């Protein structure tokens, strides 16, 4: 290269006098006219084992062992360069160098993380397209450039974004809508928002993670001033920033409340994919523990521990594994199963009467689901004990083999409401004394039933009058106008009474099924067949 130049300033064919070689992180950083004028475009791949050996020979250094070379392949550039320049280096020294490297240098291995199955499939597709884009074979506009991650706290939204940036070789930038809002008045908030996007747009190869994404708000259908005008301006500016995102920038939104987000933000070309992250199931909990323990314990043992960690988030499981490792480390020994067991929460046992009421509740769901044709089979399970310090107590649950319903109708939606209310109804039929387990939190039986009824009345037009209030995504937790809300209450009342009638006619079967559940812990029933105990 005879002449230095900078990609920070625009380059054209008129600036190439005396320039023999132009080096860029990505071919897409080079303007099209310069690419067209180039005699050859060479794509430089990460160094291989042969490259590392050759570099040592050129520098006059002694050869590295095959194990050291293979260990260096794929490591960050600064680690490889340091190892190449050292006069002599052993494998243990190379391993220590990698271990001591800063966390920013070493990337999370996305595809080794437990869980995230649907997200991994999307990330793999994005990774393939990004590689094509880097080679100049694909325009950035053809790459999936945004996604929304929603789910309870601790389900791994930030972890996934960090791992995604690592696997793409992108820089991770994180911000929150709360941080924008804390800047001050409207103009201050808009300024902070622009700064975040400007930083992301300053170079190609960035994952911009925006947490508290729902706090951006929604635009009113007809703004009338005051706060309505505020949110109108905020969302319009956000959409403007999204439309101006440059090549090589992925925008990831993270939220606990996706229903609060303005639909325009989630349209194609903006935040176009939505992935729901849930609390891990038993197998995923075991895999998360194994991941953080470095395969120190067999998966069979971890499954036994994971069974007692129902409702724990991925973040909580990581903390449990970390504390277990410390316990073993403090005693100067390898980790054992007892170290994990020592981290398990102390539990209180349900009384036999409480277990029976839990079983009645779940049996009610199962019987009504099969009675109305909502499911082909149902599996009921209950627990003997609970964690008194948990935010909610998992006492029992019913899972279904659903009958496919690709053409939802009014009667089908009413059946769903009936199934939601069947647990509470069963407790009323058998005990005349209902527990609070059907409500109290988002996602509970009563909340889901209410949300369906509100959507029927306020969005689907299935109330007494065919009225449309707003998009179905925005209805659920939001209260409707009084007249429509009274229709919602009437729907819930009618379906609750319907469910009571079904279970009164099946009371003997309900009690028998609940007794089987208490005795066997897990029971599966199928429509028109006998009960199977598991």
Textual characterization of the structure:
By secondary structure, this protein is an alpha/beta fold. It has 4 domains: 49-100, no CATH class; 110-276, Rossmann fold; 285-342, no CATH class; 352-533, Peptidase M41 (Methane Monooxygenase Hydroxylase, Chain G, domain 1), CATH 1.20.58.760. 46% of the residues lie in helices and 10% in strands. The protein has a 5-stranded parallel sheet with strand order 2-3-4-1-5, sandwiched between helices. Mean pLDDT is 84; it is low at 1-8 and 102-107.
Question: Would you kindly provide a brief summary of this structure?
Answer:
With 534 residues, this protein is of the alpha/beta class. The chain has helices at 32-37, 49-58, 66-72, 77-85, 91-100, 117-134, 157-168, 177-181, 186-201, 227-243, 282-293, 299-306, 314-330, 337-341, 352-371, 410-431, 445-458, 482-505, 507-520; strands at 146-150, 171-176, 206-211, 249-255, 273-276, 348-349, 375-382, 385-386, 396-402, 522-526, 531-533. The chain contains 19 helices and eleven strands.
Tell me what the CATH architecture of the largest domain is.
Up-down Bundle
The CATH class of the largest domain is identified as Mainly Alpha
Percent range for β-strand residues: 5-15%
Q: Overall mean pLDDT score?
A: 84
Number of strands: 11
> What is the H-and-E element order?
HHHHHHEHEHHEHEEHHHHEHEEEHHHHEE
Tally of helical segments: 19
What is the element layout, followed by pairings?
Layout: H1 32-37, H2 49-58, H3 66-72, H4 77-85, H5 91-100, H6 117-134, E1 146-150, H7 157-168, E2 171-176, H8 177-181, H9 186-201, E3 206-211, H10 227-243, E4 249-255, E5 273-276, H11 282-293, H12 299-306, H13 314-330, H14 337-341, E6 348-349, H15 352-371, E7 375-382, E8 385-386, E9 396-402, H16 410-431, H17 445-458, H18 482-505, H19 507-520, E10 522-526, E11 531-533
Helix pairs in contact: 3-5, 6-7, 9-10, 11-12, 11-13, 15-16, 15-19, 16-17, 16-18, 17-18
